[in-house]
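Thread: quick sanity check before group meeting

JM: Hey all, I'm pulling together slides for Thursday and realized we never actually wrote out the predicted structure for the chain we discussed last week. Dropping the sequence here so it's in one place. If anyone has concerns about the input, flag it before I start.
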Amino acid sequence: MASHEIDRRMNFMGLGRPTAGYSAISPLLRQAVPLALAAFYDKVRAEPETHRFFQNEGHISAASNAQQRHWDAIIDGRADDDYAASVRTIGRVHARIGLEPRWYIGGYSVILAHLTRAVVERPKKLFANRRAHDRVTAEALAELNQRVLLDMDLAISIYLDALQEERDRVQAEQAAAEARQAQVVRALGAALHSLADNDLSVTLPDVFPEEYRSLQNDFHAATRALRTAVRAVADSVESLSAGSSQLAIASEDLATRTERQATNLERTVNE
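JM (edit): ok, ran it. Output follows.
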C-alpha cells in the first residue's frame, strides 16, 4: 500500500500531524509498549491457535522487536514509505501464514488496553489542574485510538488483498487447467472419430499439455498395437486365401484324375 493511500485514509479520519496532547504522551507510550507487547505475547503463548505460528522463543523475540519498531512508527504518527512497507509486510505475512484477523484484532486490543491504562493512570501532578489533565487525556486517547484503528485497517486491507490475489491466482490456474483438459478432450474425440472411420494412422497433436503426455503416449501405443494386429489379421487372411486357392486347385486336379481313371476303367471293362 502506497503512502498516498495512507494519506487519503488519514484525511478521511481527520488525522494529520500529531496533536500537542498526543505528542505530550508519546514518551509515556514508548515506555508502555514493551510491557504491552509482553502481555500480548503471553496471550500468544497461552493460545494454541496463535502459538503454532512461532517456532521457538527466539522467533517470538524477533517478532516482538519488529512489533516494537512498528509501534514506534504508530506513536510517531508516521505515514511515510517505511511505515507503508511495514504495514504491507504485516498484512502479507498474516495472509501467507493463515493468521485470521480475529487474532490480529484481539492482539491489538490487548496492546491498546495497556497503552490506554498507562495514559489514564499517569500522575496528575504533571498538570496545573484536573481540567487540563482530562483535556490532554481525551485528546491523546482519541488520537491514539484513531491511529491504532488506522493501522489495523491498513494491515487487514492488505491481508484481504493478498487473499484475493491468491484466489485469483488459483482461479486462473483452474481455468487454464480446464482449457487444457478441453483441448485434450477435443483432440482425443477427433482421433477416436478417425479410428471409427478406419483411419489407423491417426495421431494426437504434437503440441499436447504436459500433464496429459502419458495419455498421448498410451493412445499412440494403442494405435500402433492395433495397426500391428490388423496387419497380422490381413496377413493371415491372405495366407488363408492362398491356401484355399491351392486346395481348390488340388481338389479340381484330383477330380480330373479320378474322372480320367474312371473312364479308363470303364473302357477296360467294355473291351
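AS: nice. Helices lie at 3-13, 20-46, 48-51, 57-76, 81-97, 101-120, 130-196, 213-270. Residues 210-270 form one domain.
JM: adding both to the slides.
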